[in-house]
Structures are given as structure tokens and as C-alpha cells.
Specification:
The protein is of the alpha+beta class and 575 residues long. Helices cover 55% and strands 11% of the residues. The chain contains 17 helices and 10 strands. It has a 6-stranded mixed beta sheet with strand order 7-8-6-10-3-9, with no helix packed on it. It has a two-stranded antiparallel ribbon with strand order 1-2. α7 packs across α17, α13 runs parallel beside α16 and α14 runs antiparallel to α15. It starts with a strand and ends in a 5-residue tail after the last helix. Pfam families: EMP70 (PF02990).
């Protein structure tokens, strides 16, 4: 590195405050002026759209300053038709002085480490650590003739960013624009381990608190319904039923109504039982991966200084949680079928279902990127590495989990199942309509955080509020459990004993709204994406995300409903 950071076109000499000349353009033509103004005003329109987003309106009304990534090409002041170009950048580099540490000069690769080292006469190491920087864009008008004598990277006189439009660089024909930048090194009290704390103090906290309060309102509303179900309805019926003698119980059995009528069918094997077991197994794996990853990130183990650690941690956790997925899937299979026969097929399906969907989507997207000669395609070496990890780690662990599931005791049903299935009464409206509508409640819990997550992925904005994300995840789990429980009870009350898949999709249907929101985000917020290839790439990754959310939330809802139904009918005494 020497005494200079070379990151063309900007070159900094360490600990030297200076203003540097880059270049001066030729006289602007009519076409170039038109292009400049289009770029300037297009970005202005984008900012107007962003400012009108619901989350952004809430932020502005509450005095929250949300900064966007990058800076515009220029700006158009209010009440004027003139456009001004951003032709000067002020770099303020924050450095922390240290001494007594045996370090040498280290480059700026990897984790962004930059240390300026030196030794004093006694051989004691000392120097400066780069702990942050600020970039301030501005417009400065300079005389083209005076700048013509300078060459690139020559040092020139420092000029402060002007506050008057007369001293700013106007975009017009025959105008020559000079591009410059200046660097200022400022000593800071921020220590090296604390350099990322600025991201922990993100200013959008009120928006996240608004999301949490919104979720709590939904939870309390659903908790009230669950409270009524348990204490006023279920418990009352069971208490009255248990107080009767056997003869009275026998007479009452003939007069049963509501959920008590389906006692002989409630645990009847569902359709596509194997697929249900596979999806619940994969959902357990994805939920465990997400929960553990976010907990570690919230505790500070996933440092933003180590790029890729979050994704790497998710992949490693997903691979090793295959043992849990296999165990849950096979044990549920044994519970439904009453036998371990076919557990290998279930385990293989668990290992290949979600991973197969992911690899199929990635393969299609990669062929599209290769066809368009894009550098964004996954390298073939990395592609085969992921395949190797899948078949060498995830699949064997899933099979091991399935084997352990065969050794575990199946969950015994509290009531017998009749040989002849009971007829389900006709309904005025299809049950899937209620199931689909139930997904709006979990979606209301996560949609604000979803906006910030999509912005961090596709717009390059920094996201490090994992504490809020952990709280939202826990609230989402509670909402999914409550929604599925309430809908399961409603279906049982109308003598609909086919509750298995409805319990899964009652909470899993949130994935439909997540995918629709992703499309809305693409249309209205990602106008910077150009061409069908970029849009296809975005939709492909959004589809993977939606499927993962469906499996995770569906599993939470199904397991809650399963244990609710098991508890409910274990209290019924019917001979």
C-alpha cells in the first residue's frame, strides 16, 4: 500500500489533507445537456416516489431522517428550471491514533482494514486506524481556463462547498465542468472494535417500533379469541361433559354438536400425507435456521465487518439441521401411518424437496445469466461445491434424522378413528377463501421489516437492526400459531374434520402476500433495475424466499394446531 491508497479514480495520501483535480470536460453539447438533465430529474422523481412510500411517510411525520444509498448526478432547486451537477466530493476520513501495538502496514482488502503504522525512536509501534469515513457531495463552479494547466491527481486550492447557487456548477450548453475531490483526515475517539456501532444506532427505530406495536395489537386480538375458545367454550363443554355419569354421557353422545361430532374422524389420515410430512420436516429445518441465525446476529456474532458471514452461517445451519428435518418428517409419518414402512422415501424427499426447488430455480437463473453473458452468474465451481455440500452433508444427516425418527415413539391418538368417514356438511363459501384471508394477519406483522430487508438486498442499504428482526420473528411465530389454531377450531365447529392441510396453509398463505408484495416492490421501488434479465433474477429469488416462508410459517401453524387438536380430544371420554 505504501503511503497511498490507490482505488482509482480516487487516490488518498495518508494523513495528508488536500484537494485533488480529476479532469475538465469539453464544452457540453446540446445532447449532453439534455442527458444530464434527464438523469438529474429522473433521480429527483425516484426520490419523490421513495418519499411517498407508507414507511417513509411515517418516518418523515415523526421526524426520522432516512438516508439513501449514493448521491444524485445533480439537483434541480425548487422554483427554478436550472439544473446543477455534483462535481465535487468531500471525503472525511476518521482515524483513531494508537500506540504500543506491534502491527505493520496492512492493506485495505478483506474486511476493510486500513492501518497506517510507524515506529518511534524506541522501536515502539504506533500509528492510525481508519475507523470510518463520510462523503459529502456538492457542486462547485471553477474556471475552466484556470483548471486547464492541471493534470489528473494534481493538488489544487481547497474551496468549501458553496451555499449560493451562483457559485455552483450550472448545467448548460458550452459549459466546461471540472471534477475534483478533497480529503480530510480527522482524529476520532472511535476505537477499532467499535467502528461498526454507527450501524447499531440506525435512525429508523420508530418505524420498527411501529411495526412491533402493530404486531402486538394483532397478537392481543387473536389471544383474546383463543382465550374465549379455551376458557368459555372448550373448557365449559368438557367440564359439563365430565360431570355426567356414564348413562348421561351415552345419551349426550347422541346429541353432540360442533367439534365433538367429528371425534371419530378428526385424526383420519389426510390426503397426500407424505407431502405433508415432507413440507413439515423442511419447514422445521428452515425455521430453526432462521431463528438461530437471527439470534446470533442480534447478539453481535454476525459482524458486518465479515462480509458473507450471515449467508455462510445460514447455509451451514441449514445443512446440519437436516437431522432435525428428517426426524420430524419421519416421526410425523409414523404417527399418521402407524408404521415405519417407507421412512427412507420420506427422508429422501425431505432432503430433496426444498433444496431441489432452490437448485432448480438457481439453475434456470444461471442459464439465463450465462445466455446474456452476465458476470452475475454463479461460478460453475461454486455451483458444484453447493451440490457437494447438499449430497455429502445435508442428505446423509437427513437420513440419519429419519432413522432416529423410526426409533422414537409415535404420537398416539387419544380417540379411535371410524372405518367409514363422516360426511362434511355443505358450506356457503369455500374454505380456501377463509384460509387465504388468514395470511393477511401474519403479513401485517412482517411487511415493514420486509421492506427494509428487500431494500438492503436490492438497493445496497445497510441492515443491522437484528434485534428488531428477532422481535418481529418471535411475534410472527405467535401470530402464525394463533391464526392456525383459531381457523382449525372454526373448521371443527362446522364438522369439517379435514383440518390438516387447512392448518398448514392458514399461516403458510402469508407467502402469497409476500410474493405479491415483492412484485409491487419491483414495479414501484426498483425502477433502477433494467431489462427483463434483472427482473427475472429478482422474481426468481423472491420465489425462493416465498417458498421458504410458506414452509416455515405453515409448519408453525400445523404443529400448533396438531397439538391443540390432540389436547382437545384427549379430554373427551367417548366409549
Amino acid at each position: 500500500m505504501g503511503d497511498q491508497i490507490d482505488n482509482s479514480p480516487y487516490r488518498f495520501r495518508m494523513n495528508v489533507n488536500e484537494t485533488v483535480f480529476l479532469c475538465t470536460t469539453d464544452s457540453l453539447t446540446e445532447r449532453e445537456v439534455k442527458l444530464f438533465k434527464e438523469r438529474t430529474r429522473d433521480l429527483y422523481q425516484v426520490n419523490m416516489i421513495l418519499d411517498n412510500l407508507p414507511a417513509m411517510r411515517f418516518a418523515k411525520q415523526n421526524g426520522i431522517n432516512i438516508q439513501w444509498t449514493g448521491f444524485p448526478v445533480g439537483y434541480n432547486p425548487p422554483q427554478t428550471n436550472d439544473d446543477y451537477v455534483i462535481n465535487h466530493l468531500k471525503f472525511k476520513v476518521l482515524v483513531h491514533e494508537y500506540e504500543g501495538r506491534a502491527v505493520e502496514i496492512i492493506g485495505t482488502e478483506g474486511e476493510g482494514l486500513g492501518i497506517i503504522g510507524k515506529s518511534d525512536d524506541k522501536g515502539k509501534k504506533s500509528g492510525y486506524e481508519i475507523v470510518g469515513f463520510e462523503v459529502i457531495p456538492c457542486s462547485i463552479k471553477r474556471e475552466a481556463e484556470a483548471m486547464s494547466k492541471f493534470k489528473m491527481y494534481d493538488t489544487i486550492d481547497t474551496v468549501n462547498c458553496p451555499g449560493e447557487l451562483e457559485k455552483s456548477q450550472l448545467i448548460r450548453e458550452q459549459e466546461k465542468i471540472t471534477f475534483t475531490y478533497d480529503v480530510e483526515f480527522v482524529k476520532s475517539d472511535i476505537r477499532w472494535p467499535s467502528r461498526w456501532d454507527a450501524y447499531l444506532k440506525m435512525e429508523g427505530a420508530r418505524v420498527h417500533w411501529f411495526s412491533i406495536m402493530n404486531s402486538l395489537m394483532v397478537i392481543f386480538f387473536l389471544a383474546g379469541i383463543v382465550f374465549v375458545i379455551f376458557l368459555r367454550t372448550v373448557r365449559r363443554d368438557l367440564t359439563r361433559y365430565e360431570d355426567l355419569d356414564k348413562e348421561a354421557q351415552a345419551q349426550m353422545n347422541e346429541e353432540l354438536s360442533g367439534w365433538k361430532l367429528v371425534v371419530g374422524d378428526v385424526f383420519r389420515e389426510p390426503s397426500c400425507a407424505k407431502l405433508l410430512c415432507v413440507m413439515v420436516g423442511d419447514g422445521t429445518q428452515i425455521t430453526g435456521m432462521a431463528l438461530v441465525t437471527i439470534v446470533f446476529a442480534a447478539l453481535g456474532f454476525m459482524s458486518p465487518a465479515s462480509r458473507g458471514m450471515l449467508l455462510t452461517g445460514m447455509i451451514v445451519l441449514y445443512l446440519f439441521l437436516g437431522i432435525v428435518a428428517g426426524y420430524v418428517g419421519v416421526r410425523l409419518w409414523r404417527t399418521i401411518k402407524g408404521t415405519s414402512e417407507g421412512w427412507r422415501s420420506v427422508s429422501w424427499s425431505v432432503a430433496c424437496f426444498f433444496s431441489g426447488i432452490v437448485f432448480a430455480v438457481l439453475t434456470v437463473l444461471n442459464f439465463i445469466l450465462w445466455g446474456s453473458k452476465s458476470t452475475g452468474a454463479i461460478p460453475i465451481s461454486l455451483y458444484f461445491l453447493l451440490l457437494s455440500l447438499w449430497f455429502c452433508i445435508s442428505v446423509p444427516l437427513t437420513l440419519l434424522g429419519g432413522f432416529l425418527g423410526t426409533r422414537a415413539e409415535p404420537i398416539s391418538y387419544p380417540v379411535r378413528t371410524n372405518q367409514i368417514p363422516r360426511e362434511i356438511p355443505a358450506r356457503k363459501y369455500p374454505s380456501w377463501l377463509l384460509v387465504l384471508g388468514a395470511g393477511t394477519l401474519p403479513f401485517g406483522t412482517l411487511f415493514i421489516e420486509l421492506f427494509f430487508i428487500l431494500s438492503s438486498i436490492w438497493l445496497g442499504r445497510f441492515y443491522y437492526v437484528f434485534g428488531f428482526l428477532l422481535v418481529v420473528l418471535l411475534l410472527l411465530v405467535v401470530v402464525c400459531a394463533e391464526v392456525s389454531l383459531v381457523l382449525t377450531y372454526m373448521h371443527l365447529c362446522v364438522e369439517d374434520w379435514q383440518w390438516w392441510w387447512k392448518a398448514f396453509y392458514a399461516s403458510g398463505s402469508v407467502a402469497v402476500y409476500v410474493f405479491l408484495y415483492s412484485i409491487n416492490y419491483l414495479v414501484f421501488d426498483l425502477q433502477s433495475l433494467s431489462g427483463p434479465v434483472s427482473a427475472t433474477l429478482y422474481l426468481g429469488y423472491s420465489l425462493i424466499m416465498a417458498v421458504a416462508i410458506m414452509l416455515s410459517t405453515g409448519t408453525i401453524g400445523f404443529l400448533t394446531s396438531f397439538y391443540f387438536v390432540h389436547y382437545l380430544f384427549s379430554s373427551v371420554k367417548i366409549d
